[in-house]
Amino acid sequence: MSNTYLTNEELTAMIPDPAARIKVIRWFMNTKKITIEQISEASGLHYQTIVNVLQRKRKGTAQTWDKIMAVLQLGYVERCMIEHDRIVERLNADIKKQGPSVPVSVLCQPYGAFLYACDYRLDGTFDQQGMILHMDLQEAKQLFELEHPLPVSQ
C-alpha cells in the first residue's frame, strides 16, 4: 500500500463490480462531504456526465473516472477501508495457522475525528506512520470486525 492517492485502475481491481464500486464512491463522497457540483468544478467534467456515471446511465471513460478519483483523493486510510475484508481474511488465516493468542501490532491512522485500524503485522513493522496498538490476533480480529466502514462487502 502506497502513500499516493488511489487510482481508478486500482479501485477497479479491488472492487470489480461496478455497482459496488459506485456505492463505495458515493459513501466516500458523503463521508468527505463532496458534492457532484464540487467534483464537476474541480475536475472540469460536466455535472450531468458525473450524474450519469454515478447513476450507471453511462459507463464513463477511464479518463472520466480518473478525474473523479483525483477529486476524491482517496489515500492510505481509504485504501485500508476498501481492503478491510481482505485484512479480516488474513486475520482468520493467521489465527488458524498461528493460534489466537499470538501477539500482533495494529496500525491506526486518524480519519476525521476517529482512529481507524488500517492493518496489522505479526512482526510489528509498517511502512506507514501512525499509532501502534499491541494485542493478540483474536483481539485484532474483534477490532477489525467492529469497525467495518463501507456500505458493501467486496
Q: What is the number of E strands?
A: 3
Unreliable parts: none
Largest sheet entry: 3 strands, antiparallel
Helix-strand string: HHHHHHHEEEH
Instruction: Please state how the strands of the largest beta sheet are arranged side by side.
Output: 2-1-3
Secondary-structure-based class equals alpha+beta
CATH topology category name of the largest domain: 434 Repressor (Amino-terminal Domain)
**Domain tally:** 2
Features:
single chain; three-stranded antiparallel sheet; alpha+beta; 3 strands; 154 residues; 2 domains; 434 Repressor (Amino-terminal Domain); Lambda_DNA-bd_dom_sf
Describe, in plain words, how this protein is organized in 3D.
The protein is of the alpha+beta class. 53% of the residues lie in helices and 15% in strands. It has a 3-stranded antiparallel sheet. α3 crosses α5.
SSE blueprint:
Layout: H1 8-14, H2 18-32, H3 36-43, H4 47-54, H5 62-72, H6 76-82, H7 84-98, E1 103-111, E2 114-121, E3 131-136, H8 137-146
Antiparallel strand pairs: 1-2, 1-3
Helix pairs in contact: 3-5, 7-8
Quick take:
This protein is of the alpha+beta class and 154 residues long.
